[in-house]
Inverse folding.
């Protein structure tokens, strides 16, 4: 049995989360999803991920706080996926340790 690349997708928009997860699964990824930062952090503590994709604007805990909490314990590649395209948001993400920033 081959090892699949394991991905965590944290996105509160149900339609976007579902279609992105489906895309990744159809392309051979093992995908877990979270609807907010609290869920994402709990999953990161329980599982080993090869990459994490985070939205910035999520309920309970935003992507910035989630990224900070992940970086306190883990060195997992993180991609910020956000509708926010302002320079401030990108700089803030990179200052907190994100590996890449993609605008929706």
């Amino acid at each position: 049995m081959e090892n699949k690349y394991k991905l965590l997708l944290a996105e509160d928009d149900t339609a976007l989360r579902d279609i992105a997860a489906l895309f990744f699964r159809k392309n051979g990824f093992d995908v877990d999803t979270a609807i907010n930062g609290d869920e994402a952090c709990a999953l990161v503590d329980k599982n080993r991920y090869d990459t994490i994709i985070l939205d910035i604007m999520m309920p309970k805990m935003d992507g910035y706080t989630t990224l900070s909490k992940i970086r306190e314990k883990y060195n997992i590649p993180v991609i910020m996926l956000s509708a926010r395209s302002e320079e401030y948001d990108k700089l803030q993400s990179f200052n907190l340790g994100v590996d890449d920033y993609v605008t929706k």
Remarks:
- The beta strands are 6-10, 30-34, 51-54, 78-82, 100-103.
- Residues 14-26 form the longest helix (13 residues).
- The two ends are 34 Å apart (CA to CA).
- The chain has four helices and five strands.
